[in-house]
Amino acid sequence: MLQHEPHLVSTDVATMENIGYSALFDEVDMAVEEVRISFSQVSRCGFYKHGEGTPEFGSLADTMAQLQLWSSGLSSLAETKLFEAEGERYPVYLFGLLGGNGSWLMSTWNEVPSHEAGVASVPMDSKVGDPKVHLNSIEKNSIPGYATYFWIIPARNVVASLRFKRSITG
Q: Residue 111 contacts by C-beta under 8 Å, 6 or more apart in sequence?
């Protein structure tokens, strides 16, 4: 169960290095960017017997450690697919996971609708009622989609979603 409280902050590489994530920036040239951070309080995490208030085992920290252990043994992103597409629900994949200094950064890849011929798009200057739809090709063996980012702080039972101002992350 999560309780949600959004906050708007700015962060940069130096801030992320201070919390132990300098490895994320070793090979990436990043600019300072505004980030909306929405904090959610985790009220329960673990394996609970029906009706019980105390978990039999597990915690947020344990869940993250187990997720890292599981994912480190996989050979491809495709193996992290959480579910098959069904109706308006599209697959989500574990894109990355990095732990350190008591917290975790996790990214997921969210698949978007596509067709064998590609992903649909329309020119911005299309006439209303007469748009020209283009199907953009998708690289073979790739997953069309977008990334989402999360900051997990087990000691505080907090999960925060990170939304960058210039991207469609959630």
A: 85, 90, 91, 92, 93, 143, 144, 145
Count how many Cα atoms sit within 13 Å of the Cα of residue 98 in the half-sphere of its side chain: 13
Q: Mapping DSSP to helix (H, G, I), strand (E, B) and coil, where does residue 103 land?
A: strand
Q: How far is CA 169 from CA 16, 34, 52, 102, 147, in A?
A: 18, 13, 36, 24, 6
* Lowest-confidence segment of 79-93, 113-127, 149-163 by average pLDDT: 113-127
pLDDT in tens, 31-73: 677 889 999 999 999 999 999 989 999 999 999 999 999 999 9
How far apart (Å, rounded) are the C-alpha atoms in residues 150 and 94? 11
Across-strand partners of 107?
Answer: 96, 149
Would you state the structure tokens that stand for residue 125, as one six-digit string? 């200057």
Question: How far apart (Å, rounded) are the C-alpha atoms in residues 64 and 104?
Answer: 8
Sign, Cα dihedral of 14, 19, 21, 26: positive
Query: In the chain, what are the domain boundaries?
Result: 2-164
CB within 8 Å of 140: residues ≥ 6 apart: none
Q: Residue 105 pLDDT more than 70?
A: yes
